[in-house]
Design goal:
Helix content: 55-70%
Number of strands: 3
Number of helices: 17
Strand content: under 5%
CATH topology of the largest domain: Citrate Synthase, domain 1
Low-confidence stretches: none
Shape: globular
Radius of gyration: 22 Å
Largest sheet: 3 strands, antiparallel
Distance between the termini: 38 Å
CATH superfamily of the largest domain: Citrate Synthase, domain 1
Mean pLDDT: 92
Order of helices and strands: EEEHHHHHHHHHHHHHHHHH
Structural class: mainly alpha
Number of domains: 2
CATH architecture of the largest domain: Orthogonal Bundle
Length: about 375
């Protein structure tokens, strides 16, 4: 019998040069660049190009990439009309998955197995395809938010950066200060890639079948939608509301742990110390409150109290705050609806999924794991009619 590893824990399923994690030291890097440096100095567009190609772009390369993204920001009228037919209370991740999957009908992508085998697809091809999908997905999320609230679709402004334009299309009543724009840009960078997680593995498996890249992204969105993966940041907000005031943190945590309930936003399979992305987000939350009022919100105080209680009780087990713990607080304070938190994750992670698509099809073997059968032996059929 072959060794069985539930959840493929510890199983090396691929070789990749896209991102790397040192969980003991709390280090995350994209293509050799630390996440701290990218979050501080880069832009989402530049980081997406880095993930896709392996190198930071020149000024000319970045301008060309941004132009390709911008060309696909404005959604086809047919796709907008499709969104209008959906129930207003639909789960946004269901809507986004449907819309991304349908992109291939509006923008057919030629991806042929024989041409792939003959190495006819250059990096320029992969950049163009990826830029188109990246350009569309942000607009899909923004458009759905307006449609479900009976508001008119806002056309993109190609003079704005990716982060600025997303906020412009999402809700033009939100005042986007330079700090808020920087926060959105940085959170897109922080969520863009994270080695072989559940949704990325889904993207890789779908890629290995040589499916269309829009179907690769659609399949990954489905995986991301689960609360054990991308949906955790929404759960954090609900959890902090349930906890009440900061004075309740320790007692609330003890009760939750005694019932073996999940503490959302705490712990990560890859890190035995605090998630480096959470460290960056904590500083951004403080900066945002300083700009807005000079005082932190009750929710942030609750979060800090709960994080302190968790560190007292769980740090010996290597359980610390992860990226989901503070990202939801930031989004809520900016004015982004809670039900779109995971959708923002999908916008960002699309660049990482596409990087893995490129890497997978470049050296492909279809995934076909095996199993240990635990069912019945041979049984004879009997007609009980």
């Amino acid at each position: 019998m072959t060794d069985y590893h539930p959840g493929l824990d510890g199983v090396i399923a691929t070789e990749s040069s896209i991102s790397d994690i040192d969980g003991g030291k709390g280090i995350l890097s994209y293509r050799g660049y630390s996440i701290e440096e990218l979050a501080e100095k880069s832009t989402f567009e530049e980081t997406a190009y880095l993930l896709l190609t392996g190198e930071l772009p020149s000024k000319v390369e970045l301008e060309g990439f941004v132009k390709k993204i911008n060309a696909r920001r404005d959604l086809p009228e047919g796709l907008i009309n499709l969104l209008k037919t959906l129930p207003k209370d639909s789960n946004p991740m269901d809507v986004i998955q449907l819309a991304v999957s349908s992109l291939g009908t509006y923008y057919p992508i030629k991806f042929d197995a024989e041409e792939l085998k003959a190495n006819k697809y250059t990096m320029d091809y992969y950049i163009a395809v990826s830029a188109g999908i990246i350009g569309s997905i942000g607009s899909i999320v923004a458009a759905w938010n307006r449609i479900k609230n009976n508001k008119a679709y806002i056309k993109p402004d190609n003079q704005l950066s990716y982060a600025e334009n997303f906020m412009h299309m999402l809700d033009d009543s939100i005042k986007v200060t330079p700090l808020i724009n920087r926060i959105i840009d940085a959170t897109l960078i922080l969520h863009a890639e994270h080695t072989i997680n559940a949704s990325t593995f889904t993207a890789m498996v779908t890629s290995s079948t040589l499916a269309s890249p829009t179907q690769v992204i659609a399949s990954a969105i489905g995986s991301l939608s689960g609360p054990l993966h991308g949906g955790a940041n929404q759960k954090v907000i609900l959890m902090l509301d349930e906890m009440g005031g900061k004075e309740n943190a320790k007692a609330w945590l003890d009760e939750r742990l005694s019932k073996k309930q999940v503490v959302w936003g705490m712990g990560h399979r890859e890190y035995s110390t605090k998630d480096p992305r959470a460290n960056i987000l904590t500083g951004m939350v403080k900066d945002l409150f300083k700009e807005q009022s000079g005082e932190v919100s009750d929710m942030f105080e609750n979060a800090m109290a709960l994080e302190e209680a968790c560190e007292e009780r769980l740090s010996k087990k290597g359980v610390y705050a992860n990226v989901d713990f503070y990202s939801g607080i930031l989004y809520k304070e900016i004015g982004i609806p809670v039900d779109l938190f995971t959708a923002l994750f999908a916008i960002s992670r699309t660049s990482g999924w596409l990087a893995h698509w490129i890497e997978q099809v470049g050296n492909n073997k279809i995934f076909r794991p095996t199993q240990n059968y635990t069912g019945y032996g041979n049984r004879g059929y009997s007609d009980n009619s």
